[in-house]
Design a protein that fits this description.
By secondary structure, this protein is of the alpha+beta class. The protein contains four helices and 15 strands. The strands form four sheets. The protein has a five-stranded antiparallel beta sheet.
Length: 184
Protein backbone atom coordinates (compact mmCIF):
# COMPACT_ATOMS: atom_id res chain seq x y z
CA UNK A 1 0.00 0.00 0.00
CA UNK A 2 1.40 3.42 -0.87
CA UNK A 3 1.78 6.24 1.63
CA UNK A 4 -1.37 8.10 0.47
CA UNK A 5 -3.44 4.93 0.73
CA UNK A 6 -2.12 4.31 4.24
CA UNK A 7 -2.92 7.91 5.29
CA UNK A 8 -6.47 7.58 3.93
CA UNK A 9 -6.93 4.26 5.72
CA UNK A 10 -5.78 5.80 9.02
CA UNK A 11 -8.06 8.83 8.52
CA UNK A 12 -11.06 6.60 7.72
CA UNK A 13 -10.39 4.35 10.72
CA UNK A 14 -10.12 7.35 13.04
CA UNK A 15 -13.53 8.71 12.06
CA UNK A 16 -14.65 12.00 10.58
CA UNK A 17 -12.25 14.92 10.55
CA UNK A 18 -14.96 17.07 12.15
CA UNK A 19 -14.84 15.00 15.35
CA UNK A 20 -13.09 17.62 17.48
CA UNK A 21 -11.50 16.47 20.77
CA UNK A 22 -13.36 17.47 23.94
CA UNK A 23 -13.03 17.14 27.71
CA UNK A 24 -15.68 14.46 28.24
CA UNK A 25 -15.59 14.97 32.02
CA UNK A 26 -16.47 18.66 31.66
CA UNK A 27 -19.17 17.67 29.18
CA UNK A 28 -20.58 15.15 31.68
CA UNK A 29 -20.53 17.76 34.45
CA UNK A 30 -22.45 20.17 32.20
CA UNK A 31 -25.03 17.48 31.39
CA UNK A 32 -25.46 16.86 35.13
CA UNK A 33 -25.80 20.59 35.80
CA UNK A 34 -28.51 20.82 33.14
CA UNK A 35 -30.36 17.77 34.51
CA UNK A 36 -29.74 15.73 31.33
CA UNK A 37 -28.34 12.61 33.01
CA UNK A 38 -30.03 9.36 33.92
CA UNK A 39 -29.22 5.91 35.31
CA UNK A 40 -28.96 2.66 33.37
CA UNK A 41 -27.45 -0.77 33.78
CA UNK A 42 -26.24 -3.42 31.39
CA UNK A 43 -28.56 -6.44 31.55
CA UNK A 44 -28.13 -8.48 28.36
CA UNK A 45 -26.05 -11.66 28.44
CA UNK A 46 -22.62 -11.44 26.84
CA UNK A 47 -20.12 -14.00 25.60
CA UNK A 48 -16.57 -13.91 26.96
CA UNK A 49 -13.26 -15.66 26.56
CA UNK A 50 -9.84 -15.29 28.12
CA UNK A 51 -7.67 -12.80 26.26
CA UNK A 52 -4.22 -13.83 25.13
CA UNK A 53 -1.56 -11.73 26.91
CA UNK A 54 -0.56 -8.98 24.50
CA UNK A 55 -3.78 -9.30 22.44
CA UNK A 56 -5.19 -6.00 21.20
CA UNK A 57 -8.96 -5.88 20.69
CA UNK A 58 -10.26 -3.49 18.05
CA UNK A 59 -13.89 -2.60 18.70
CA UNK A 60 -15.79 -2.29 15.42
CA UNK A 61 -19.41 -1.14 15.21
CA UNK A 62 -21.36 -2.23 12.13
CA UNK A 63 -22.09 0.77 9.94
CA UNK A 64 -19.59 2.98 11.81
CA UNK A 65 -16.25 1.20 11.67
CA UNK A 66 -13.60 1.33 14.37
CA UNK A 67 -14.82 2.68 17.69
CA UNK A 68 -11.59 2.24 19.67
CA UNK A 69 -8.92 -0.30 20.45
CA UNK A 70 -7.65 -1.72 23.69
CA UNK A 71 -4.19 -1.59 25.15
CA UNK A 72 -2.39 -4.97 25.04
CA UNK A 73 -4.16 -7.53 27.23
CA UNK A 74 -2.65 -8.61 30.52
CA UNK A 75 -2.92 -12.10 32.00
CA UNK A 76 -6.49 -12.65 33.27
CA UNK A 77 -8.13 -10.01 31.06
CA UNK A 78 -11.26 -11.03 29.17
CA UNK A 79 -12.59 -10.34 25.69
CA UNK A 80 -16.33 -9.63 25.91
CA UNK A 81 -18.62 -9.93 22.90
CA UNK A 82 -21.97 -8.18 23.16
CA UNK A 83 -24.98 -10.10 21.88
CA UNK A 84 -26.21 -7.26 19.71
CA UNK A 85 -26.64 -8.05 15.99
CA UNK A 86 -27.44 -4.38 15.28
CA UNK A 87 -23.82 -3.47 16.10
CA UNK A 88 -22.18 -6.63 14.77
CA UNK A 89 -21.75 -8.20 18.21
CA UNK A 90 -18.83 -5.89 18.95
CA UNK A 91 -15.95 -7.04 21.14
CA UNK A 92 -14.20 -5.17 23.94
CA UNK A 93 -11.32 -5.98 26.25
CA UNK A 94 -12.05 -5.79 29.98
CA UNK A 95 -9.35 -5.90 32.64
CA UNK A 96 -9.50 -8.91 34.96
CA UNK A 97 -10.48 -6.91 38.06
CA UNK A 98 -13.27 -5.00 36.28
CA UNK A 99 -14.57 -8.18 34.66
CA UNK A 100 -14.89 -9.86 38.08
CA UNK A 101 -16.78 -6.80 39.40
CA UNK A 102 -19.14 -6.56 36.41
CA UNK A 103 -20.00 -10.14 35.33
CA UNK A 104 -21.21 -13.39 36.91
CA UNK A 105 -20.65 -16.78 35.36
CA UNK A 106 -20.08 -18.55 33.25
CA UNK A 107 -23.73 -19.53 33.11
CA UNK A 108 -23.41 -22.30 30.55
CA UNK A 109 -21.03 -24.30 28.37
CA UNK A 110 -18.60 -22.83 25.84
CA UNK A 111 -19.61 -22.62 22.20
CA UNK A 112 -17.47 -24.02 19.37
CA UNK A 113 -15.30 -20.87 19.42
CA UNK A 114 -14.61 -21.11 23.16
CA UNK A 115 -16.97 -18.26 24.12
CA UNK A 116 -18.77 -18.68 27.46
CA UNK A 117 -22.03 -16.93 28.48
CA UNK A 118 -21.84 -14.40 31.33
CA UNK A 119 -24.51 -12.27 32.99
CA UNK A 120 -23.86 -8.58 33.76
CA UNK A 121 -24.15 -7.74 37.43
CA UNK A 122 -26.18 -4.67 36.50
CA UNK A 123 -23.94 -1.98 37.95
CA UNK A 124 -25.84 1.29 37.81
CA UNK A 125 -24.14 3.76 35.48
CA UNK A 126 -24.90 7.45 35.09
CA UNK A 127 -25.35 8.45 31.45
CA UNK A 128 -26.35 11.18 29.07
CA UNK A 129 -27.22 11.03 25.39
CA UNK A 130 -25.07 13.11 23.04
CA UNK A 131 -27.37 15.79 21.59
CA UNK A 132 -27.47 16.54 17.86
CA UNK A 133 -26.19 20.08 18.51
CA UNK A 134 -22.88 18.70 19.87
CA UNK A 135 -22.13 16.77 16.68
CA UNK A 136 -19.43 14.11 16.62
CA UNK A 137 -16.44 14.51 18.91
CA UNK A 138 -13.50 12.52 20.22
CA UNK A 139 -12.18 12.09 23.73
CA UNK A 140 -9.66 9.92 25.51
CA UNK A 141 -11.15 6.69 26.86
CA UNK A 142 -10.08 5.41 30.31
CA UNK A 143 -7.68 2.97 28.60
CA UNK A 144 -5.85 5.88 26.94
CA UNK A 145 -7.12 5.49 23.36
CA UNK A 146 -9.17 8.00 21.38
CA UNK A 147 -12.87 7.25 21.27
CA UNK A 148 -15.42 8.88 18.97
CA UNK A 149 -18.94 9.80 20.07
CA UNK A 150 -21.79 10.73 17.77
CA UNK A 151 -25.23 12.28 18.33
CA UNK A 152 -27.57 9.70 19.90
CA UNK A 153 -24.74 7.77 21.59
CA UNK A 154 -24.66 7.35 25.36
CA UNK A 155 -21.75 8.58 27.43
CA UNK A 156 -21.72 6.42 30.56
CA UNK A 157 -19.91 6.91 33.84
CA UNK A 158 -19.43 4.71 36.85
CA UNK A 159 -20.62 6.92 39.75
CA UNK A 160 -18.06 5.23 42.05
CA UNK A 161 -15.18 5.89 39.61
CA UNK A 162 -15.71 9.00 37.50
CA UNK A 163 -12.54 8.27 35.51
CA UNK A 164 -14.47 5.26 34.15
CA UNK A 165 -16.34 7.30 31.52
CA UNK A 166 -16.79 6.00 27.97
CA UNK A 167 -19.05 5.95 24.92
CA UNK A 168 -21.61 3.30 24.06
CA UNK A 169 -22.94 3.43 20.51
CA UNK A 170 -26.65 4.29 20.40
CA UNK A 171 -27.59 0.86 19.00
CA UNK A 172 -25.46 -1.00 21.58
CA UNK A 173 -26.95 1.03 24.43
CA UNK A 174 -30.49 0.30 23.25
CA UNK A 175 -29.65 -3.38 22.80
CA UNK A 176 -27.77 -4.13 26.02
CA UNK A 177 -28.83 -1.60 28.69
CA UNK A 178 -31.97 -1.16 30.78
CA UNK A 179 -32.87 2.43 31.62
CA UNK A 180 -33.62 2.87 35.32
CA UNK A 181 -34.01 6.66 35.29
CA UNK A 182 -34.33 8.31 31.87
CA UNK A 183 -32.02 11.12 30.88
CA UNK A 184 -33.92 14.22 29.82
Amino acid sequence: MNRLGLMLLVMFAAGPASAAPVDVHAMFAEAERQGRTGLARKTKLVDARAAEPGEVVVTVITGEGKETQSPPAQAGDMVVRNRCPETGNEEILIAAAKFAQRYDGPSGPADAGGWLPYRPRGIEMAYFVVPERDGAFTFTAPWGEPMIARPGDAIVRNPQDTADTYRIAAAAFACTYEILQPAS
